[in-house]
Each structure stands twice: as structure tokens, then as C-alpha cells.
UniProtKB/TrEMBL annotation:
PANTHER family with a match to the protein in the record: UPF0702 TRANSMEMBRANE PROTEIN YCAP
InterPro entries tied to this protein: DUF421, UPF0702_alpha/beta_dom_sf
Protein keywords: Cell membrane, Membrane, Transmembrane, Transmembrane helix
YetF C-terminal domain sequence ranges: 85-212
Cellular component aspect of the GO annotation: plasma membrane
Spans traversing the lipid bilayer: 6-28, 62-83
Membrane topology field: Multi-pass membrane protein
Record keyword Transferase present: no
Subcellular location: Cell membrane
Protein name: DUF421 domain-containing protein
Length: 239
């Protein structure tokens, strides 16, 4: 490939990448397993258009950009209509379907969803449920995920059930990740940079040498120091 052709390919690749990234940002961020049917279709079409535009030099860039942004616009329009109209949402995404009720598996629902009992049991095991009789209510959501409510007697005991008094604390969150200080998390737990410096000094490390520091609003924390490449290689050698 000659110089001008290579430069054109690099330019087209960067341009298409930025446009696809912008389109996906417009459509919103979801995990792949959480995509609704129309979102999955849009994602597949956009990826195909991008690959065609990059690989086919004879295809003008605009010939791919126009349908790319049109698909993103249709997805945005569909999201707005789904938000405003339950009928349109049901039309595009379907409805949740109950597959287990009071421990009884609804075989008709499984047939409608084209799910086997093996698929259902696998999804239950993914939620640490091995006996469908323990399930009070299970539904297949419109994105394909399984939501489960256990029978009351099968629910794990909670502190409230045991009538135990507890002290409410915030969740443990990161303060430093790979030497980068998360200022908002520090302030959220009532701490500041001075506390961080004292903590680093107490552990004889610099803040930039901290790989991970997590904690909450109490004085309890966990600090992990970065390992040098030399020490890491020596450990690997000893192993």
C-alpha cells in the first residue's frame, strides 16, 4: 500500500471511529446483555457500516456517515417514543414474561420465549438458586435477564429480621487508584488531602506509590502499595 493510500486509510479509520463513538454516546451506555432488541439491531448495523466504510476505499465516507447518524437518530427517536408511550415500548421491546409462579414453572411461557428448561435452570443457578420450588416469582425481562423473588422462608436472614442494632456506615469506596487521588470520594467520606498525606506517611509511602486505597467515613482503610517491576520480576522468578 502506497503512502497516499495508507494516509487515506488512516484518516478514514480515525474519522469513522470518532463518528461511531459519538453515535454510541448519543444512544446511551448499556452493557451488551442489557440491550433492548432495537438497540442491538442499531449496534450491529452501525458496526457493519463502519467496517464497510473503512475497508472499501471506493465507497465515499459520507455514504456511510449519513446512514450511521440516521440509525442513531432513529434510535433516539425510538427511545423518546418508548418513554412517552407504553404501547410503543411494548411494540418495540415486548413485555416481561412470568416463567415461575409459586414454585411452578410455566411451560407455555417457556415455549413462547423459546427457552428450554436447561436455559431456565442455568439462569437460576447464576443467581445461586438450584431448586425452582424456592422461587416465589421469576420473570424474563425485556432485555433477556431473569429477575427472581424467593419465597419468604427461603430469603436469607437480614439483621433487621434478627432485631440486631447496627451502626450505619457508608460503603467502602476507593480514595486512590493507581496513584490517582479521587477527591470527590474523600470529601464524601468527610476526609481531605491532609488525612490522605498522614495515611501515606503512616505507611511510609508516597501518594503516587499507592496502587489502591479504599475506606469509608471511619478510620478503617486498606492500602496496597505498588510493586516495583524489579520486585515483581524477582517474585515471579522465585515462584
Amino acid at each position: 500500500m502506497e503512502g497516499p493510500a495508507l494516509k487515506l486509510l488512516i484518516f478514514r479509520t480515525i474519522l469513522i471511529y470518532l463518528c461511531v463513538l459519538f453515535s454510541m454516546r448519543l444512544m446511551g451506555k448499556r452493557q451488551l446483555g442489557e440491550l433492548q432488541p432495537e438497540e442491538l439491531v442499531s449496534t450491529i448495523l452501525i458496526s457493519n457500516l463502519a467496517s464497510i466504510s473503512i475497508e472499501s476505499e471506493e465507497v465515499p465516507v459520507t455514504a456511510s456517515l449519513i446512514p450511521l447518524f440516521l440509525i442513531a437518530a432513529l434510535e433516539l427517536l425510538g427511545s423518546v417514543l418508548s418513554f412517552r408511550s407504553q404501547w410503543f415500548f411494548n411494540l418495540m421491546s415486548g413485555r416481561p414474561k412470568t416463567v415461575i409462579l409459586d414454585g411452578q414453572i410455566d411451560q407455555n411461557a417457556l415455549r413462547m420465549l423459546r427457552l428450554t428448561v436447561t436455559d431456565l435452570m442455568e439462569a437460576l443457578r447464576g443467581k445461586d438458586i438450584f431448586d425452582p420450588r424456592d422461587v416465589s416469582y421469576a420473570v424474563i425481562e425485556t432485555n433477556g435477564n431473569l429477575s427472581v423473588a424467593l419465597r419468604p422462608e427461603r430469603e436469607p436472614a437480614r439483621l433487621a429480621d434478627l432485631q440486631l442494632k447496627t451502626t450505619q456506615t457508608n460503603a467502602t469506596i476507593p480514595f486512590v487508584l493507581d496513584g490517582q487521588v479521587l477527591e470527590d470520594n474523600l470529601h464524601w467520606c468527610g476526609k481531605n488531602h491532609a488525612w490522605l498525606e498522614r495515611t501515606a506517611e503512616a505507611n511510609t509511602v508516597l501518594i503516587s506509590e499507592i496502587l489502591l486505597l479504599v475506606g469509608n467515613e471511619t478510620e478503617d482503610y486498606f492500602l496496597l502499595k505498588k510493586e516495583s517491576r524489579h520486585s515483581g520480576s524477582s517474585r515471579k522468578k522465585d515462584a
